[in-house]
């Protein structure tokens, strides 16, 4: 008989004691369960204790989230959030630099938990941290020359804790002083600053701008676009991402009249060229967050064109008509001014009409009427004038060449420019708030799953991130553009296992070749290497240290250590990796976190990896999962599967080109009335 649904079986750890296996009755108060656990280990004052998850999150168990406990969950008995908060509040004010540093590191880690965060904030912890940043840094900077690593870590942990605490939305951003804003801005404005401090300072500035109009004005006084752009010219993609995020935030919160001024500054600073050179064409892949921030920047700048796009030309406005006169002058009167032309007014009008026809306007007499339709409105005329002034030779050549063509071969500059501008406005969705479209799609897709509770709905929304929505759209677009008939879908389903087996064998072959990995300590990357490879029979992992990076494969006999595949218990990635929880892990950037994976074996043993790049990370995690009989879930596998499946389908259908494939199989013909046509070949 299965146990009641209110009973969950868990393991509970306590330092220095054997874990307890016990059944938790979810109907009992949490305090009663904690008392029962404490009594089992003879621990007094159970109100000073709490339960928390023993995984990488270390989140406290509360009455609100206790329903998330599942059978087999491992919990840990630990100090209560209130006690922990009180102790850390005292420890971070220690006179000992080492004790203060260790306390700030613990605070940065624990602040991710909203339960702890609430307790620490109740002790006015946010104010304490801001005071340490405002006034404490000067005192520590005096020691910076002799204690630079300690100072950098201390400030980094302080800012990390501040960011984590503020992310819970418990404290309003409007409460911070100008001195604090100036201090954070000074970290961003410094030419040489610790990377982790710069990351967190940029994150704080972005949040200030987005969450408070008053703070936007104060931040805008301290930070200029010119001071942010040098951070885009570095090599750290996370710093570049945060920098563009701050630019986007300033752009988004700026008054309408200020946005165009900012766009002009960005153009003067050659922002597009810098992004193209140092971000898009850099020798590394663009991560999802960077792609999103670039997308937001593009939307914000394109939307500045909406006003001109929706403005009709006023045929009576002389300034607007002068633009059309300028287009004619550049094309036909580059040597002389129209005001100096001879002849009667009628001849001049006739000449203008002829020239406007050559320019490709629909209305030859009054071309201003061509710009009364919105979109594209005056934006089309702006584009034409820009092209005529900045690419004058090409402009004149296009106009003159089109003047000599037959009507059926003509490509009139005026009409083409207007239609092209209109088409680009539609494609680039100028004036549309595309972010709201994504939000709408997130809500609609979450609702189609018919969530039974608000918590489930929230969970679905979290899973449908911006990146995931883009992947879904791309997948759906591919399905629509490719083959959607039933026979093709059945063919895909039939050959997919073959493709997956091919990918699996490729992954295992790459593991047999092996890979050289770098070793990392808590502070910085070191030029020490180790090599790992799979035995040809796929039963043993061979690994060992190397003095230098190898040129080619490393023989099995030179690798001293072995790990039988049969001993592997699990493969974990990212924040779940043991080496991502160790000292100094907070300074690791997101790129390192995305390349981390670990092999867990025996009871408490692990083999920790930092892949050299995303491709090797996918190869190894796929290969290890394949060895354990699990699905290969990496982005690389999905891309390979899509590519190979599409290629295989197209190859098999080459002979059916231009042949309509029916949705249903043809009917089986009736049996013949006789079989006289059958004969024996013998």
Verbal overview:
With 682 residues, the protein is α+β, with helices and mostly antiparallel strands. 52% of the residues lie in helices and 10% in strands. It has 27 helices and eleven strands. The chain has helices at 30-40, 81-91, 97-110, 114-122, 125-141, 148-166, 178-189, 195-211, 213-222, 225-228, 237-253, 256-268, 271-280, 288-302, 306-309, 318-332, 345-358, 378-390, 392-403, 413-427, 434-448, 454-463, 466-481, 486-513, 590-594, 614-627, 635-652, and strands at residues 7-13, 20-25, 49-53, 74-79, 515-520, 525-534, 540-546, 561-564, 568-573, 596-601, 605-610. The strands form three sheets. A four-stranded mixed β-sheet has the order 2-1-4-3. A hairpin with a 5-residue loop joins strand 6 and strand 7. Helix 7 packs across helix 8 (195-211), helix 8 (195-211) crosses helix 9 (213-222) and helix 18 packs across helix 19 (392-403). The longest helix is centred in the last third of the chain and has 28 residues, at 486-513. It is globular. InterPro entries: ARM-like (IPR011989), ARM-type_fold (IPR016024), ELMO_ARM (IPR024574), ELMO_dom (IPR006816), ELMO_domain-containing (IPR050868), PH-like_dom_sf (IPR011993), PH_domain (IPR001849). This is Engulfment and cell motility protein 1. Keywords: Apoptosis, Phagocytosis, SH3-binding. It comes from Apodemus speciosus (Large Japanese field mouse).
Set down the secondary structure blueprint.
Layout: E1 7-13, E2 20-25, H1 30-40, E3 49-53, E4 74-79, H2 81-91, H3 97-110, H4 114-122, H5 125-141, H6 148-166, H7 178-189, H8 195-211, H9 213-222, H10 225-228, H11 237-253, H12 256-268, H13 271-280, H14 288-302, H15 306-309, H16 318-332, H17 345-358, H18 378-390, H19 392-403, H20 413-427, H21 434-448, H22 454-463, H23 466-481, H24 486-513, E5 515-520, E6 525-534, E7 540-546, E8 561-564, E9 568-573, H25 590-594, E10 596-601, E11 605-610, H26 614-627, H27 635-652
Parallel strand pairs: 1-4
Antiparallel strand pairs: 1-2, 3-4, 5-6, 6-7, 7-8, 9-10, 10-11
Helix pairs in contact: 2-4, 3-6, 5-6, 5-7, 6-8, 7-8, 7-9, 8-9, 8-11, 11-14, 16-18, 18-19, 18-20, 24-26, 24-27
InterPro entries: ARM-like, ARM-type_fold, ELMO_ARM, ELMO_dom, ELMO_domain-containing, PH-like_dom_sf, PH_domain
Protein name: Engulfment and cell motility protein 1
Keywords: Apoptosis, Phagocytosis, SH3-binding
């Amino acid at each position: 008989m299965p146990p009641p649904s209110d009973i969950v079986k868990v393991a509970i750890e306590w330092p220095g004691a054997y874990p307890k296996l016990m059944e938790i009755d979810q109907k009992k108060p949490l305090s009663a369960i904690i008392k029962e656990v404490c009594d089992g280990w003879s621990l007094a004052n159970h109100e000073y204790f709490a339960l928390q998850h023993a995984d990488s999150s270390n989140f406290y168990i509360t009455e609100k989230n206790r329903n998330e406990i599942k059978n087999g969950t491992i919990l840990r008995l630990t100090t209560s959030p209130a006690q922990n908060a009180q102790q850390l509040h005292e420890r971070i004010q220690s006179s000992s630099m080492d004790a203060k540093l260790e306390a700030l590191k613990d605070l940065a880690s624990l602040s991710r938990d909203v339960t702890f965060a609430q307790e620490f904030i109740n002790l006015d912890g946010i104010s304490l941290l801001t005071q340490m940043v405002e006034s404490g840094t000067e005192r520590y900077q005096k020691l910076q020359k002799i204690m630079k690593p300690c100072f950098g870590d201390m400030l980094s942990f302080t800012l990390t804790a501040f960011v984590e605490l503020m992310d819970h939305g418990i404290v309003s951003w409007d409460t911070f002083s100008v001195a604090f804003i100036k201090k954070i801005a000074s970290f961003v404005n410094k030419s040489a600053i610790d990377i982790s401090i710069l990351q967190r300072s940029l994150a704080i500035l972005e949040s200030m701008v987005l969450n408070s109009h008053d703070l936007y004005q104060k931040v805008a006084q301290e930070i200029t676009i010119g001071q942010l752009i040098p951070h885009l010219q570095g090599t750290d993609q996370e710093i570049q991402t945060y920098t563009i995020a701050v630019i986007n935030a300033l752009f988004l919160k700026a008054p309408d009249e200020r946005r165009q001024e900012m766009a002009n500054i960005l153009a003067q600073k050659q922002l597009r060229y810098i992004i193209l050179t140092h971000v898009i064409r850099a020798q590394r892949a663009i991560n999802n967050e960077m792609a999103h921030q670039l997308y937001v920047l593009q939307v914000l700048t394109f939307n500045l064109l909406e006003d001109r796009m929706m403005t009709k030309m006023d045929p009576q406005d002389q300034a607007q008509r002068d633009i059309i006169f300028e287009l004619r002058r550049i094309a036909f009167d580059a040597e002389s001014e129209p005001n100096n032309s001879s002849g009667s007014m009628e001849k001049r009008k006739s000449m203008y009409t002829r020239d406007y026809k050559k320019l490709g306007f629909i209305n030859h007499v009054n071309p201003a009427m061509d710009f009364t339709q919105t979109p594209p409105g005056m934006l089309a005329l702006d584009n034409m004038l820009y092209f005529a002034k900045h690419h004058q030779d090409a402009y004149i050549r296009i106009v003159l060449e089109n003047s000599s063509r037959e009507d059926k071969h003509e490509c009139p500059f005026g009409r083409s420019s207007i239609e092209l501008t209109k088409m680009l406005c539609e494609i680039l969705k100028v004036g549309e708030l595309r972010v709201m479209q994504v939000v709408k799609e997130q809500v609609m897709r979450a609702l189609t799953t018919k969530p039974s509770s608000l918590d489930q709905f929230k969970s679905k929304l979290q899973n449908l991130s911006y990146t995931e929505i883009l992947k879904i759209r791309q997948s759906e677009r591919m399905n629509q553009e490719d083959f959607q008939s039933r026979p093709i879908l059945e063919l895909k389903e039939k050959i997919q296992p073959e493709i997956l087996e091919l990918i699996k064998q490729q992954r295992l072959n790459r593991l047999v070749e092996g890979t050289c990995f770098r070793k990392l300590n808590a502070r910085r990357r070191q030029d020490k290497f180790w090599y790992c490879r799979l035995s040809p029979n796929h039963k043993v992992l061979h690994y060992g240290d190397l003095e230098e990076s190898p040129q080619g494969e490393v023989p099995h006999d030179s690798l001293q250590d072995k790990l039988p595949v049969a001993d592997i218990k699990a493969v974990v990635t990212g924040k779940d990796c043991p080496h991502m929880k160790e000292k100094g892990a907070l300074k690791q950037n997101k790129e390192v976190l995305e390349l981390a994976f670990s092999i867990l074996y025996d009871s408490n043993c692990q083999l920790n990896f930092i892949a050299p790049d995303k491709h090797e990370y996918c190869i190894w995690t796929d290969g290890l999962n394949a060895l354990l009989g699990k699905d290969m879930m990496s982005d690389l596998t999905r891309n390979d599967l899509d590519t190979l499946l599409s290629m295989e389908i197209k190859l098999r259908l080459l002979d059916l080109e231009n042949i309509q494939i029916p949705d249903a199989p043809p009917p089986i013909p009736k049996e013949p009335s006789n079989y006289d046509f059958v004969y024996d070949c013998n």
